[in-house]
Amino acid sequence: MSHTAHIPSHRKPRRSASKLALRAGVAGGVLGTIAVAGAAGPANAEPVTETIEMPTLGSLAAGSNLASAVAASAEASQQEALDQSLQTLEQAALKKASQDAKKAKAEADRKAAAERAEKARLKAEKERKEAEEAAERASRTSTRTQLATNSSSNDGGSSSSSSSSSSSDSGSSASDSGSRTQAPTGSAASIVAFARAQVGDAYISGGTGPNAWDCSGLVQAAYRAAGIDLPRISYQQSSMGSSVSLGNLQPGDILYWGSRSGSYHVAIYVGGGKYVGAQNSSTGVVERSLDWDPPSGAVRIL
Questions:
Q1: Which one has a higher pLDDT value, 3 or 225?
Q2: Looking at domain 182-302, does it have CATH number 3.90.1720.10?
Q3: Disulfide check for 17: which of 64, 78, 221, 234 has CB 3.0–4.6 Å away?
Q4: What contacts 281, CB < 8 A, 6 or more positions away?
Q5: What are phi and psi of 272, to 5 degrees?
Q6: Distances in whole angstroms, Cα of residue 135 to Cα of each of 121, 128, 132, 143, 213
Q7: In terms of pTM, does the model score above 0.70?
Q8: In terms of Cα–Cα distance, which of 180, 179, 192 is closest to 147?
Q9: Does the pLDDT at position 168 exceed 70?
Q10: SS3 of 299, please?
Q11: Phi/psi of residue 52, nearest 5 degrees
Q12: What are the domain boundaries of the chain?
């Protein structure tokens, strides 16, 4: 067996080429020193037969390429892992965005359906009110026509009555509060017809029609329908004409509450022991019995 010692060339793949070259240079220096020492020694000294096998340039290049390949592989693996992580995050973000979009669409659909239902309800409510108002107007028109017809027939009957009959009727009309069945005639009929046609209208302070009134506004409009102008304020209306007792009322008389010169409420006597007045915001325009709220007095304008 040869006495030559062989140095194995196995090296770690991550050692850089510069380190390998440095080590090769150091080894070369050592060999040079050994050779010089051998030449300066005794002539009969045995020659140095031990040799050291140094790595070749090819092996150095192969090691460098292997280190580069390992580094490139590690970088590729790291990039692949990063790409997979980014892809996972993108998929999660897309999934969440899709879920949020579905929720937003469902909420928008719900709100749209609720708005449509509310619009339909409001439309139906409006149509119902319009139908009720139309029916009420038709009823008032019918009432007004019927009262006007009755007034005309009563006027014709009274003009053909005999003087004795007229005298008897006068006595009966003087006690209208007792019989309470006298039908209005002439201007009184127009006043009563107008007042009754407004029953059901709303009450509003300062209201003068056509669908909302206060007490004096209704009285003023009713008398205007008969061609008679009255002041606007209740105490001014009750100060006009002549005072009459509540036991001698005739249709068309103005009823008042409070003192005659300081009344706070007025209404129109329509016969049969009843009156029509714009009472308050809760009741609106109503027809009531005198017993429901007895007035303080009455005046006669006609």
A1: 225
A2: yes
A3: 64
A4: 202, 203, 204
A5: 65, 25
A6: 21, 11, 5, 12, 20
A7: no
A8: 192
A9: no
A10: strand
A11: -115, 125
A12: 76-155, 182-302
